[in-house]
Amino acid sequence: MPGTVSATASAYRRVLACWTLGMLLAGCNTETLFQSSFNTNALDAPPAPNQAVGTASVAGDPGSVLVVATPPNATSDQWVQIGRLSARTSAVASMEGNLSAVRGPGKYSFLAALYIPSGTGFASLDFQAVNVAPEPQSFLHLDFASNYPSPGTNVVRVNDEYNNYFGAFPNDHVFTVAVSFDTTAASPTAHVQLFGTGTSGSADIPLIPIAFAQQFGAVQVWMGFPWAGAFDATDILVTHDK
């Protein structure tokens, strides 16, 4: 399907090019806090702890988080694959991208490409506060929910709330997720936008509590109970406006 490959492969590049142009127009007053480098990591092994910027840590059963070759209908990049063999007995599988610094209140942007095959369970993204007790805390949780809320429908569910969802995304093709937020605002919201063939929708999501959002320090890519299957992610990037 050459036409589909070209469209999906270029979606992330277009978003990244626009983002880079924005940085240049702003005088490059932006720092990268996390950038994945799976292309330099060994295949069929967990992501290397030291990524291009920031670090990666994994959790789950052996073999549940691995660097893999290009999925179908995708670019030639290597990807990280997150999976659970059993919906009931497998451990939660995750890769956590730890930012190189915690900058506190400020403006942040996130980009990633996702590939979610047909038949897989919910693929999740968590934006996490660090330096809070007793452990990192999520202040924004996104489930890429296939066949939800009804068969044949794929939506993004927000913060595990049953009726809080938006947009659409395809199975078996690459699409891009972009998130931006400003935690200096009195009532900060995250703007989430989907890009790529077969996607639609955006949402502005309140960040509560503000104190957690202001301690942004990690992004988690994961699959938990009661889901099974596997999905892939690559080109994970977090930046901060200085």
DSSP summary, beta strand count: 15
Query: What general outline do the C-alpha atoms trace?
Result: globular
Number of structurally distinct domains: 1
Do you know the CATH architecture?
Answer: Sandwich
Strand-residue proportion: 35-45%
Please identify the structural class as seen in this structure.
mainly beta
- In DSSP terms (H or I, runs of 4 or more residues), the helix count works out at 2
Describe this structure in words.
The protein is globular. The chain has 242 residues and is mostly beta strands. It has helices at 2-25, 210-213; strands spanning 30-35, 55-59, 65-68, 79-84, 93-98, 107-115, 123-129, 137-145, 155-158, 165-166, 174-182, 189-195, 202-206, 216-223, 229-241. The strands form 2 sheets. Strands 1, 3, 4, 6, 11, 12, 13 and 15 form an 8-stranded antiparallel sheet that branches. Helix content is 12%, strand content 41%. The chain has one domain (2-241): Jelly Rolls. The protein has 2 helices and 15 strands.
SSE layout and pairing:
Blueprint lengths: L1 H24 L4 E6 L19 E5 L5 E4 L10 E6 L8 E6 L8 E9 L7 E7 L7 E9 L9 E4 L6 E2 L7 E9 L6 E7 L6 E5 L3 H4 L2 E8 L5 E13 L1
Antiparallel strand pairs: 1-15, 2-5, 3-4, 4-15, 5-14, 6-11, 6-15, 7-8, 7-14, 8-9, 9-10, 11-12, 12-13
